Amino acid sequence: MKKLMAANWKMYKTGAEAAETVKEMAALLNGTAPEGREIVVFVPFTALERASVAMTAVKGASTGAENVYPAAEGAFTGEISPAMIRACGASWVLTGHSERRHILGESDAFVGEKTAFALSSGLRVMLCIGETLEERESGLLRNVLERQLRLGLKNVPADTPVEALAIAYEPVWAIGTGKTATTEDIVETHAICRELMRDILGARADETPLLYGGSVKPANAGSILALDNVDGVLVGGASLKADSFTQIINA
Length: 251
Ligand code: PEP
What we know:
Elements (H helix, E strand, L loop, with lengths): L2 E6 L6 H14 L8 E7 L1 H11 L5 E5 L16 H6 L4 E4 L2 H5 L5 H13 L3 E6 L3 H5 L3 H12 L12 E5 L13 H19 L8 E4 L4 H8 L6 E4 L6 H8 L2
Parallel strand pairs: 1-2, 1-8, 2-3, 3-4, 4-5, 5-6, 6-7, 7-8
Helix pairs in contact: 1-2, 1-10, 5-7, 7-8, 9-10
This protein binds phosphoenolpyruvate.
The site of phosphoenolpyruvate (PEP) has 14 residues, from strand 8.
């Protein structure tokens, strides 16, 4: 399985800025993802079309939206449908990012609705899961991951192509804080996630990429990518600059 190198640009960059960063990435990568790597950059809706056009200059790379509404169209002011995302030239969407769960109040059930609807609409989905520090310290790690995975993957269409789904484990306490989980934490938690994925997804679980996210940077990406059950990384802050994200892609 290729390692999936994902960037999350959150609420940063206008269309022009996003296109410029993608152009810089294309130059640094000589127009292609390195051997054994696939790249996806999640960008704000307003930058999606320009970033997607610019990304056609990088073989093995694509773009994604950071959110989606689970309906084809309708009276949902301010929301964006899967077809609108695809029309921008993007092929992926993030669901369940901790900032949407904890700042915007999205429930596990709503995340599951989005995941299933986006998949049935032909988008590839990266479902994010992860515990807060309080949950970890109260011994609730496994319960939280199990609940987020079961509800997040509920109603995934049976005919979903294997390459359409990825899971990103991101401990909330390690996102944007500079605190990376220890090697032992990552190995232990990814093993739990993989076991739960096997129980929920059956045979396809081992072919479904499981990414780590949380303060990944050029200095730690290589050692994280070498760990058991780590099939890629999801990078926030350190993906905003082409140079830094390219170093991570090449790690
Ligand atoms: C993220 O936004 O998914 C993330 C992991 O952020 P950071 O790399 O900045 O911790």
